[in-house]
C-alpha cells in the first residue's frame, strides 16, 4: 500500500498510535496522538518527554518482552498521557526493528473538551496537561520553558459599548493572531474570559522568551475590525520560567499570573518576568 495512503488511514483512526525504536524515539505519530499531546512536530522527540518517569522502566520492559516473545503485549497504565489512564498495546516488527504502539483510552473516563467553543484554542484543562509534557521534555533536553500569561486591556469597554458579539469577534481575532505568531512546538490556550496562556518550549534561556513576547504584543495591538468599526486592545503579559522559577506547573502558572498583574500596574502593553521571592516588582520588563 502507498505509504501516504496508509498514513492517511492512520490519521483517520481516533486511537492514539505511534511507532518507536528501541531507544523510545518516536518515528511516527498519528493525528490522534498529536491532538491529545498538543505536539505538532514529533521529529527528534522521545517518549521520555511525553510520559511520567515512573512509567519509563515499565514501557522498556514491555517493549523488550514483545520483541523477545514475538507477540502482542497489552498493559494498563495509570496516568500515562496527561494524567489519563491508557491501555497500551505493543507489537514488535522484526523487519524494521521497530515497535508499533496503540494507546486506548478508558471508555469509562469522561471525555474532556479539547477546544474552547468560541476561539477553537485549547482549554485551560488541556493546557495543564500539555504543560506537564512540556516540562518533562525540557527536563530531558535540559532546556527552558516559559509560561506566558496574557490579559487583554480595553476588552471590557469594547464589550460594554458594542455588545457581546463585538467582544466575541475581538477574542476570535486575538486568538488567531496569537496562534499565527507562536511556533508549532509552543502551546496556546484560552485560560478564561479575556485571559490567555502560552507555553514557549525549547528555550536555551528564559530571557529568550522576551523576543516572542514582543511579537505577541505587536500582534495583539493591531486594530480589529468588528464590522465597520475599528477598535484596539492591548495585552499585559506575565512570564515565569522552568526551571529558573520553579519546577511545578501550577506554581509556574501562579507566578506568571502574578507577574501579569504586576505588568498591569505599570500601564498598558507591559510584560514582566516573575520574581517568586519578591512581591514589589517583577524581575524585569520586556
TrEMBL record:
CDD domains hit by this protein: GGDEF (cd01949)
Superkingdom classification of source: Bacteria
Pfam families, per database record: GGDEF
Residues of the GGDEF domain: 143-276
Protein name listed in UniProt: Diguanylate cyclase (GGDEF)-like protein
Amino acid at each position: 500500500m502507498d505509504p501516504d495512503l496508509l498514513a492517511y488511514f492512520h490519521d483517520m483512526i481516533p486511537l492514539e498510535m505511534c511507532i518507536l525504536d528501541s531507544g523510545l524515539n518516536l518515528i511516527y505519530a498519528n493525528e490522534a496522538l498529536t491532538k491529545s499531546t498538543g505536539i505538532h512536530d514529533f521529529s527528534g522527540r522521545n517518549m521520555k518527554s511525553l510520559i511520567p518517569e515512573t512509567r519509563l522502566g515499565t514501557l522498556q520492559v514491555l517493549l523488550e518482552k514483545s520483541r523477545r516473545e514475538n507477540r502482542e503485549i497489552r498493559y494498563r497504565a495509570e496516568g500515562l498521557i496527561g494524567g489519563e489512564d491508557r491501555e497500551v498495546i505493543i507489537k514488535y516488527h522484526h523487519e524494521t526493528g521497530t515497535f508499533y504502539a496503540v494507546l486506548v483510552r478508558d471508555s469509562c473516563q469522561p471525555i474532556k473538551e479539547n477546544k474552547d467553543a468560541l476561539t477553537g484554542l485549547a482549554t485551560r484543562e488541556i493546557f495543564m496537561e500539555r504543560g506537564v509534557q512540556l516540562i518533562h521534555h525540557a527536563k530531558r533536553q535540559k532546556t527552558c520553558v516559559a509560561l506566558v500569561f496574557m490579559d487583554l486591556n480595553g476588552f471590557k469597554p469594547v464589550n460594554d459599548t458594542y455588545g457581546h458579539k463585538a467582544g466575541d469577534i475581538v477574542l476570535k481575532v486575538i486568538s488567531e493572531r496569537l496562534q499565527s505568531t507562536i511556533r508549532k512546538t509552543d502551546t496556546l490556550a484560552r485560560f478564561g474570559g479575556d485571559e490567555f496562556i502560552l507555553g514557549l518550549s525549547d528555550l536555551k534561556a528564559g530571557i529568550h522568551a522576551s523576543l516572542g513576547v514582543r511579537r505577541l504584543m505587536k500582534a495583539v495591538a493591531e486594530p480589529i475590525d468588528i464590522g465597520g468599526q475599528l477598535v484596539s486592545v492591548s495585552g499585559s503579559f506575565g512570564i515565569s520560567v522552568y526551571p529558573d522559577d520553579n519546577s511545578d506547573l501550577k506554581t509556574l502558572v501562579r507566578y506568571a499570573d502574578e507577574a501579569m498583574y504586576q505588568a498591569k500596574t505599570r500601564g498598558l502593553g507591559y510584560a514582566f518576568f516573575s520574581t517568586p521571592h519578591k512581591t514589589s516588582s517583577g524581575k524585569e520588563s520586556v
